[in-house]
Amino acid sequence: VEPEEEGGREEEVAVVRSMESADAEAAGGSEGAPSTEEGSGLPGFHHEVVPTGSASSRVIVHVDLDCFYAQVEMISNLELKGKPLGVQQKYLVVTCNYEARKLGVKKLMSVRDAKEKCPQLVLVNGEDLTRYREMSYKVTELMEEFSPVVERLGFDENFVDITEMVEKRLQQLQSDERSSVTVSGHVYNDQSINLHDISHIRLLVGSQIAAEMREAIYNQLGLTGCAGVASNKLLAKLVSGIFKPNQQTVLLPESCQDLIHSLNHIKKMPGIGYKTTKRLEALGINSVRDLQTFSSKILEKEFGISVAQRIQKLSFGEDNSPVTPSGPPQSFSEEDSFKKCSSEAEAKKKIAELLASLLNRVCQDGRKPHTVRLIIRRYSSEKHYSRESRQCPIPSHVIQKLGTGNYDVMTPMVDILMKLFRNMVNVKMPFHLTLLSVCFCNLKALNTAKKGPIDYYLTPSLSTTKCSGKRSLKMKDTHMED
DNA sequence: TGGGGTTAT
DNA sequence: ATAACCC
């Protein structure tokens, strides 16, 4: 790929370009004739040929399961269906089904308030995420059958880039059939469809694919959910929430501004979180229009060019971020919160429990984590959030034994974690923790590669300079860090 | 607020 | 290692 050169039409560059193909959006136009394959063997031959992945107009679907944990619980126990159901973690109702919502229960309501509002509320404990996680990945895998480009957002949302699928279906249609394409589900704002507008046609085909996805999720997994179809992730996500349980909505370009201005505050904009909202408010920015019209220069001064440009584009409904395939998880963690943990022995016991669960998960995954991290939250009456962590490499001899249930991997791992613990917490002083979490990350595929003469020296376990055994016990803190 | 996740700095 | 974001 030639650096900087916009003129030369690149051939295979979908992935590379997708990071910055942004500006094509502003350029608008030309989405009429993206063709998929013909040009790919002839670099630079046809000036108007747009490589598949970098077509300026995409079709994105956002799939959002309805009250996911509650649905999983109702599938596990059919007795629960039809009753108001809440899923409890500690003293919170983290989510609930629609029967419960009708009776006034809200997400993240305290159990006390929820029971007060709704004495008939049935509660199930949802602190163990295993079944939710498993079901979540089944949904993602189902979506991947439609298109491999699926990005997870939490356990219950997926983005799918269906641009290619849409193009393929359009090519199957004769030109007279195009004008009989119909929408599946709602059209945002009840906007009228123009079948002479190719962008409308593409989004309608997208709505049909979205309907097929929801059907598949229901038929194969028994789950209902919403979907939104639009030209980028931001808009797809915003529009998926318009008709709420178990319905879908497509956004046509002419209604984009209406959609984003339907957000009554910038904090509703995905990508603008708690901190950014506070800082924007300090600048007098409260509405989406405030952010649209605010001085770019001052915004850049406040947030840096990267954040400033990104959030201001969001305010116009522009989002060039690609749907990034999530693939297998980057990390596994288990956490537990509690009112008080103030002794090392207590901490050690909790850490061992978290670790035991994690080892099972890591074993099932097959890959090997090369880093372990311990996270704590200290009690503080006022201070908002704030966790501290320490991490270190997992010694290679421990990594090797991770999959093999035979050897005791608990003992060396607990020892490592307690070193990390004492590195963070001065156990000779009083302390008060309210959360412990253990995380395995830096996951690598098993060493399935055959060893050539070079690999031999690059494989730590085979190198003679390491692994003296004595060294790992004397490891100083700085040696424990990555 | 829970029990998770991700990426950027 | 932390800070921001997401659910």
From TrEMBL:
EC numbers for this chain: 2.7.7.7
Compositionally biased spans, kind Low complexity: 15-40
Top-level division of the source organism's lineage: Eukaryota
Cell location: Nucleus
BP terms from Gene Ontology: DNA repair; DNA replication; translesion synthesis
Record-level GO cellular component terms: nucleus
Annotated spans, Disordered: 1-48
Keyword line: DNA damage, DNA repair, DNA replication, DNA synthesis, DNA-binding, DNA-directed DNA polymerase, Magnesium, Manganese, Metal-binding, Mutator protein, Nucleotidyltransferase, Nucleus, Schiff base, Transferase, Ubl conjugation
Catalytically driven reaction(s): DNA(n) + a 2'-deoxyribonucleoside 5'-triphosphate = DNA(n+1) + diphosphate
Record has Magnesium as a keyword: yes
Domain UmuC: from-to ranges: 60-273
The keyword Transmembrane appears for this protein: no
Entry cofactors: Mn(2+); Mg(2+)
Purpose of the protein: Error-prone DNA polymerase specifically involved in DNA repair. Plays an important role in translesion synthesis, where the normal high-fidelity DNA polymerases cannot proceed and DNA synthesis stalls. Favors Hoogsteen base-pairing in the active site. Inserts the correct base with high-fidelity opposite an adenosine template. Exhibits low fidelity and efficiency opposite a thymidine template, where it will preferentially insert guanosine. May play a role in hypermutation of immunoglobulin genes. Forms a Schiff base with 5'-deoxyribose phosphate at abasic sites, but may not have lyase activity.
Record-stated family: Belongs to the DNA polymerase type-Y family.
Name of the protein this chain belongs to: DNA polymerase iota
Gene: POLI
